[in-house]
C-alpha cells in the first residue's frame, strides 16, 4: 500500500502544489485497524517502503504485531500530524488523508481569519460548484485540539477538504486520487481569490 502513498506524493510535488518536504500522506489499511503514514522528514517525491510507518487507529490494534515497548518510538518516527490523521480515521469513514502546505491556501486562511471569518468562500465557478465553502480549522500543529477540530469538520460527509489555519490544506477522502483532486481544487480556489483581491486593489 505504500506505493499508493508514493504515487500521491510524487504527483503533488510534480504538479507544483507543494515543495517536497511540506506535507504528509496517509491511507487506511485494508482491515481498517491501522493506517500507513509518511515518516517525519520524508520527501514527498522520494517515498519508498522505508518512508512510511504503520500506526494503530485504536490503541492496541494493528495489522502487524507491534511490541508495546517500541510503540512510542514508532509514533515519534511518524509525521508530527499523526494525531490528526488518527482522530479523523477514528471518527469518520475517510480512507485517505493528504495534508499539504499549499501557499495560497495558507495565505487565504490567515487573511480570512484576520477578517473574522471561519471559512474561505470560493469566487471561481469550479470552487463554488465543488467546494461551496472551505472550512478553516484552528489548533496547534499535531495537537489534540487540532485533531478534534479536524475530525469535527470531516464528520460532515459533504466536506472533503479544509484549510488548517496558517498551515495548509487537508483532504480526507475515499482514496488518495480523490484527495489529490480536492487538494488541487482547494489551492486553485485560494489562488483565484487571492489574485482577485490583489488585482482589485490595483484598479
UniProtKB/TrEMBL annotation:
GO molecular function annotations of the record: aldehyde-lyase activity; metal ion binding; methylthioribulose 1-phosphate dehydratase activity
UniProt entry tagged with the keyword Protease: no
BP GO annotations: pentose catabolic process
Annotated Gene Ontology cellular component terms: cytosol
Enzyme class name: lyase
Keywords, alphabetical: Lyase, Metal-binding
This enzyme's EC code(s): 4.2.1.109
Source superkingdom: Archaea
Coiled-coil intervals: none
NCBIfam families, sorted: PRK08660.1
Name of the featured protein: Methylthioribulose-1-phosphate dehydratase
Species name: Methanimicrococcus stummii
